[in-house]
Every structure is written in structure tokens, then in C-alpha cells.
């Protein structure tokens, strides 16, 4: 009931726009870091972003570090994609700018710790560019 109350108070159109904006920021941060988004972008839902785990990186170690050091949980995948793709959720109350920035910072830090071949310092900046451009419109 609480979730529905929040949706009614925010308005369905505003909620949809919030999810779209946060999804755009997540994707911008992931791409700025040098990671790849898994799948066909034209059919991607704004509520989940699948990310290819870079070669040579232990996806579960990254997830554990994010959880234990940053309090951030991202999902792994199932079946043939297990160990190859992470999933970042972007749903409901959790779909907020501060959460987007936090998850990107945590992911980037965990990848740097594992010496992944990424563009350090770019993830949060990529997302901020989306948020700040939106505010200037």
C-alpha cells in the first residue's frame, strides 16, 4: 500500500520520467567508465541495466566488495549469463539521483581495487552530466 501511495502522490508521469532520467544517468556512467551494457539498447527496460563483467574480473568479488564496503547490492545473472553480466536495479523509491551516484561510485571503486581496465573517475561524472544537463533544460 505504501508503494502505491507514493506513486499516487508523485504521479505516474513524474515517476516514469524519474526512472527514465535515472536510467539514462546509470547508462552514461557505465559507458563513461568504459564498460559495456549487455543486450539490445532499443529493448532495454529503464528498471534494470545489464552490464558485461570485464574479462579477468571476478564478478562475485566485486559484488561482495560493493555490499560490504559501500552497502550497495547489485545482482548477478542466471543460467548462461551467470558470471558474465551484472544487473543494476532502478525501481521505485530506490530510483533516486543519490543512489545512482552511489552505486556508480561503488562499482568504479571495486573495479579499480581489482585493477580492472576502466576509465577511473568517469562513472559519476558521466551520470552528473546527465543530471546537470536535465536541470539546465
What does this protein structure show overall?
With 137 residues, the chain is mainly α. 54% of the residues lie in helices and 7% in strands. It has helices at 2-10, 12-33, 59-70, 97-113, 123-136, and strands at 48-52, 85-89. A two-stranded antiparallel sheet has the order 1-2. The radius of gyration is 15 Å and the shape is globular. The N and C termini lie far apart (34 Å). The mean pLDDT is 94.
What features would you highlight for this structure?
5 helices; two-stranded antiparallel sheet; globular; mainly alpha; 2 strands; 137 residues
Largest beta-sheet characterization: 2 strands, antiparallel
Task: Give the SSE order as H and E letters.
Answer: HHEHEHH
Helix content: 40-55%
Share of β-strand residues = 5-15%
Shape: globular
Mean pLDDT: 94
Distance between the termini: 34 Å
Q: Give the helix/strand class.
A: mainly alpha
What is Rg?
15 Å
Provide the spatial order of strands within the biggest beta sheet.
1-2
Layout of helices and strands:
Blueprint: H1 2-10, H2 12-33, E1 48-52, H3 59-70, E2 85-89, H4 97-113, H5 123-136
Antiparallel strand pairs: 1-2
Please summarize what this structure is.
The chain is mainly alpha-helical. The chain is built from five helices and two strands.
Amino acid at each position: 500500500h505504501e508503494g502505491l501511495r507514493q506513486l499516487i502522490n508523485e504521479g505516474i508521469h513524474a515517476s516514469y520520467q524519474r526512472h527514465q532520467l535515472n536510467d539514462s544517468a546509470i547508462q552514461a556512467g557505465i559507458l563513461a567508465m568504459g564498460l559495456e551494457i549487455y543486450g539490445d539498447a532499443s529493448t532495454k527496460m529503464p528498471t534494470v541495466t545489464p552490464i558485461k563483467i570485464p574479462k579477468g574480473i571476478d564478478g562475485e568479488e566485486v559484488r561482495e566488495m560493493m555490499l560490504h564496503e559501500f552497502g550497495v547490492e547489485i545482482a548477478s545473472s542466471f543460467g548462461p549469463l551467470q558470471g558474465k553480466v551484472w544487473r543494476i536495479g532502478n525501481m521505485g523509491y530506490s530510483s533516486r539521483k543519490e543512489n545512482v551516484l552511489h552505486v556508480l561510485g561503488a562499482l568504479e571503486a571495486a573495479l579499480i581495487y581489482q585493477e580492472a581496465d576502466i576509465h577511473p573517475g568517469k562513472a559519476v561524472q558521466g551520470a552528473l552530466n546527465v543530471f546537470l544537463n536535465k536541470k539546465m533544460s
